[in-house]
Write the structure tokens for this entry.
Amino acid sequence: MNYDVGIIYFMSVGVFFNIILSVPKSLLYLSSKYYFISISLIISELITLGVIYISYTTDSALLLSLKFLTIPFFTFIFFYIYCYKISGVSYSISKDFSGVYSIIDFMKNSFGFNCLNYLSRNLDNLLMVRFFDAFTLGIYEKSYSLMKYPIQLLTSAVSPAIQPSLALNGFDVGFANKCYNIIFDNLIYVGFITSVFIQLNAEIIVRIILGETWIDVAPVISILSISLPIQIVTSFNGGFWNSADKSNLQFRVSLVNFCIFIPILFISFFYFDKMMDVVFVISFLLIVTCSYACVQIRYKLFDISKVETLFKLIYRYLFFIFISYLVLMHVESGLLVLFISIILFSCLFIFWLYRMNLELKKLRD
């Protein structure tokens, strides 16, 4: 009992530092101190690695809880010292909640959006256990996690910079529209080539990352990756909604998507008795809901016709499906194909990101 309490104590303290870390972190993003943020996170990870090495034990749960404590703790120290050096303002305990009242509407909308998004993204796991079994849940959860890696890689690098950059001197609709179009036009192709790469090499990717035991993950991740392009594009929507101070519209869009996603998800679990059929439905729902979010943000913020956005999405997705079909029908997976596809994927990936960076740089100048 005392052992479990100790682990919970470590993790609860880590949660505390993660919460208070949000204040200096937001100030640093607002000041465009992205380099310092990255260096601080790297140093915190290295210090954590050293602490774990010094206090090494065979108990993996204890080491994991130690990681949850040390990373936010040292990151908070670095952020706090730097913010105090810049602004001269230090933390203090106060009964003054005027600062909270000024952002209460934003907090409510943001909290509502996060709750709806969390429920719609995690209810499928609960239903997998309810209608199938724990093994099926493990297969699906591993597949979904692998599919999300490219999204997390891109959003963690770009998303934090969007809101402070757009809101620093007031939200300029024209400038924001150009930024969004650059991100949309380039990252959707990054998503396409990533999806084709995953579908072509799914079995080898699973064997390398997860091992032979999880080979059943391969067909599931191939289906889920179809929704990857539109998910990558819409993963940046939050920064644009917030910089325009339209968190209420973001919440409404998420509410509509929730009302679409959840009922159809329940129906699919009741109607189908095979996991792969349900996965097809989930992938389709992700495409539909993310497309709706894309249509709405372009219409609400930039007054771009819904028909125009839909047409742009549909013809690009049809082109993507056609290319995927040609590749999968005429190319057999193997080590040579993996090697060649890695080279092609890397070249195309770097090209689209370089092109996006070049266009954004020209826009800033």
